[in-house]
Design goal:
mainly alpha; Outer membrane efflux proteins (OEP); two-stranded antiparallel ribbon; 4 helices; rod-shaped; disordered N terminus; TolC family protein; efflux transmembrane transporter activity; OMP_efflux; coiled coil
Length: about 200
């Protein structure tokens, strides 16, 4: 950047702003939706286990013919199993335990999603503050130092070494701005991931 005109120093342009609000589908993170679907499956399993504990009543009907007299008779029957001891209580209790576990997974998924979202928002806020400081006073001071050093060198008051030091400081500031923009882009991506999950 030695001998670079001021116009080109200003050309270290800003990256376009990206949207910080990329909502997830229906506003609910994917992990939470999956956990809620698993909870609904566990609720349905309780109904299945309850129905397995109900005795099946079987009805039969038919026609029977007698060979000796050529008579035909209607035959009907009903069977009702007596479930005295087995009402599938074990299966129902297991399904209820699975429902409790599924509800705990939903709560954990919500907590994790909220934590990831807050962490991403904090990272983005810190990156924005760092970038604002560097692009504001930081770069202006570095540019002013280069300008004064060049004027002083032209007037014979500063050595070339002092001009090089000022330009190196400006280069360091510009590098820091690039890194800050990269960090901001990463923080923004993390925020969008957290909102989309």
């Amino acid at each position: 950047m030695i001998g670079l005109p001021e116009e080109e120093l200003d050309a270290a342009g800003a990256i376009p702003e990206a949207s910080a609000s990329a909502p997830s589908v229906d506003g609910v993170p994917l992990a939470v939706r999956v956990a809620e679907a698993e909870r609904r499956v566990a609720e349905a399993r309780i109904d299945v286990e309850r129905s397995a504990g109900i005795s099946d009543i079987t009805a039969r009907a038919g026609v029977r013919g007698f060979a000796e007299s050529d008579d035909v008779a209607l035959v009907a029957g009903i069977s009702v199993p007596l479930a005295i001891r087995d009402r599938n209580r074990g299966g129902i209790e297991a399904a209820r335990a699975e429902l409790l576990a599924a509800e705990a997974r939903v709560a954990q998924a919500r907590l994790d999603a909220n934590r990831e979202l807050r962490d991403a928002q904090s990272l983005l806020s810190a990156a924005d503050a760092r970038l604002a400081a560097l692009e504001g006073a930081g770069i202006e001071q570095a540019r002013e130092a280069v300008r004064v050093a060049r004027l002083g060198y032209a007037a014979g008051r500063f050595s070339l070494l002092e001009v090089l030091d000022a330009e190196a400081a400006l280069n360091t500031t510009l590098t820091s701005i690039i890194e800050a923009r990269r960090d901001r882009a990463r923080a923004l991506a993390a925020l969008e991931r957290a909102q989309a999950q």
